[in-house]
Amino acid sequence: MTPPRIAVVIPTLNESAQIGHTLRALHRLPGPIECVVADGYSTDNTRRIAAPYATVCTSERGRGHQMNAGARHATAPVLLFLHADTQVPLYSWRAMHRALRESDVQAGTFRLAFRQSTPLLRFYAWWTRIDWWGLAFGDRGLFIRRSHFQAVGGFAPLPIFEDLDMARRLCERPGFRFMDTPVVTSARRFRAEGTMRQQVQNMRLWSRYMLGADPHALAGDYVYNSAVREA
Predict the structure, then answer these.
(1) DSSP annotation string for 116-127
(2) pLDDT tens-digit readout, 83-100
(3) Which pLDDT belongs to residue 225?
């Protein structure tokens, strides 16, 4: 059976340090692949670096806006939303294709692993073994059939937790698959802020969101270290 063409959609903002490595790794994977970089008007060389490897489009900033824009520019029947610092190992790529051979699988997410991991980060990654939408953050990747993406209305234009909002809506429908293989992401946020400090911030915001806080109110409390982009 011929594998479906996959459109990998990557939202970016000043990701010149990462995007080239990520796109080159994607093009080493087998099977028909389309790469789309949805850029939030970066002020560095992100778009120039991405251009030889991907269709590049621009969009209003915010991952929800950017991923929706990337999906509109993509043409493949399956979409894979991936962060700019995340790579898909070959065995996970093949596992995704095997899952997509099942007609009842409409969407799914991977487990998580970190490059340059530590015991604390391995403990954090262990929680992604739990099959629950509340832990299906965007750094785990999301693959979805285009028809299903359109049926759920795409990503909500939220400033934060657009990933969990999408995962919740998808899990309310049949056909969501929690994969038992990982994608591998950078630990740059944890290196920049300190693993414990970053995780405490994440847990505080996540807890408030899960208790019903408005993502628009939470976004102002998210402290982002711009040095992360340079890691």
Answers:
(1) T--HHHHHHHHG
(2) 999 999 999 999 999 999
(3) 46
